[in-house]
Write a structure and sequence with these properties.
Elements: H1 9-12, E1 20-24, H2 28-42, E2 45-49, H3 52-60, E3 67-71, H4 79-89, E4 94-99, H5 104-110, E5 115-118, H6 123-131
Parallel strand pairs: 1-2, 1-3, 3-4, 4-5
Length: about 140
């Protein structure tokens, strides 16, 4: 299923001005590529975290983020646990799950993710999903 086919994705899109984006992925190369692409091509503030625990600590300590892009399979706290905590404590934050496991897409929907991005992904797909939630 493509992101545009997700239930009510256009209704969910809040169109956030000056969005702050968190990228959470334990794969250094994917994290760096995602951060670089978003920083220079979408021109937004992008923060990088290599574990769900670090990302959660940042948010719990008052860190600002509007949109979270998180891998699922990470040590310590996986992306689904991070999703559950974020949605429970900060329900207005947009949460995008990324994974190379296609079966996680259905679970992502059920657990409240705003979108799912299958790995390996095209940069254009990443931009398309982010732009659903960001004012240009």
């Amino acid at each position: 299923m493509k992101f545009s086919e997700w239930p009510d994705i256009q209704a969910v899109a809040a169109m956030i001005d000056n969005v702050k984006i968190m990228v959470v992925d334990d794969d250094k190369m994917i994290r760096k590529l995602t951060v670089t692409a978003l920083t220079y091509c979408v021109n937004r503030k992008v923060m990088s975290f290599d574990t769900g625990v670090e990302a959660w600590d940042y948010l719990q300590n008052g860190g600002k983020a509007d949109l979270v892009i998180s891998d699922v399979d990470m040590p310590g706290m996986d992306g689904f646990e991070l999703l559950a905590r974020v949605k429970q404590n900060f329900p207005d934050k947009i949460f995008i799950i990324t994974s190379g496991v296609c079966e996680y897409e259905e679970r992502s929907i059920k657990e409240g993710a705003d979108a799912f991005l299958a790995k390996p992904f095209e940069i254009s797909d990443l931009f398309s999903i982010v732009q659903c939630f960001v004012v240009q």
